[in-house]
Design brief:
The protein has helices at about 15-30, 40-55, 60-65, 70-75, 85-100, 120, 130-135, 170-180, 195-205, 260-265, 325-330, 335-345, and strands at about 105-110, 115, 140-145, 145-150, 155-160, 185-190, 210-215, 230-235, 250, 275, 285-290, 295-305, 320. The protein has about 350 residues and is α/β, with parallel strands linked by helices. Strands 3-4-5-6-9-10-13 form a 7-stranded mixed sheet, sandwiched between helices. Strands 1, 2, 7, 8, 11 and 12 form a 6-stranded antiparallel sheet that branches. A hairpin with a 4-residue loop joins strand 4 and strand 5 (about 155-160). Helix 9 runs parallel beside helix 10. It is elongated.
Amino acid sequence: MFFCLKKYTYLFFRLKIVSLLLCLLAFTSCVDEVEHEDTPQGNFEALWQIIDEHYCFFDYKQHEYGLDWQQVYNIYKVRANDMISEQQLFEVLTDMLSELRDGHVNLFTTFDYGRYWKWHENYPTNFSDTLQRRYLGTDYRIASGMKYRILDDNIGYIYYGSFSSGIGESSLNEVIEHFLLCNGLIIDIRGNGGGDLTNAERLAARFCNEKTLVGYLQHKTGKGHNDFSEMEPQYIEPSGNLRWHKNVVVLTNREVYSAANEFVKYMKCMPQAKIVGDHTGGGAGMPFTSTLPNGWTVRFSACPMYDRHHQQTEFGIDPDYEVALTDVDFIKGKDSLIEFARKLLVE
């Protein structure tokens, strides 16, 4: 699901300090230049301006589905008059932000938070915890946020439900050592909405044998929709600890988002890895926050990230093999994605 505060440590705090400072300087130099009144109209104007000057995907989304932020202003300004209530204002502002179609865009208040979840709600989950329990059994191992066991065909299976759950190097050593004699490995991240990017990088480094270019990052440098820095490369360095050299399959669905989406991006660059399942949910912007005159907080994507081919992953990443959970397999007590991965690993 989409970046709730509890589940995520905000995708990209791990990225280089200079990246955060550049975004911060660009942000703080602009945000409070205009004083807006604490009225429905004033809060509307403040929110629209913050997004207009600092959101990072305007051109991409204009190209993808025709987003016109000025037209959005014209439409919602009529609704944000000073006669509406606090709850009505919240609805207007949330509806306006939903025009961005971005799971990283939230409006936080004391009584609710605005959210856009259609990036996964409009699609099948392709995951069943009932089926998963058949594979994990009751005697599976737990290391940090990972549940794992060896399946009966000597394939290792790891379920990692949230990158908010920290994983230490010693835990990863134990897990990989447990699977050393296995024929292959499945990493199931279905339903993983993200978390701490450090954990995604640390796990990906266990499948990396040389310094690997995995993508690029830009910083917002001004108020204009196209004001960005040059692309800065992102690399994964090989772990100095125990690494996995055999084949590995990563299972995905639409709820794979943010740091989990980044993990899929990393694994796409590892030659022994294959991605199986559904198109991921996306979420490729580094989030930032600002405050409205009434104290409400808005979070939004401020710095875009790309794959190694300079392509956007904001709307997700295609799997190498598109596989859906079928009703026939469900009735049989089988997970279609896990079964496909097992066959792929023994070919």
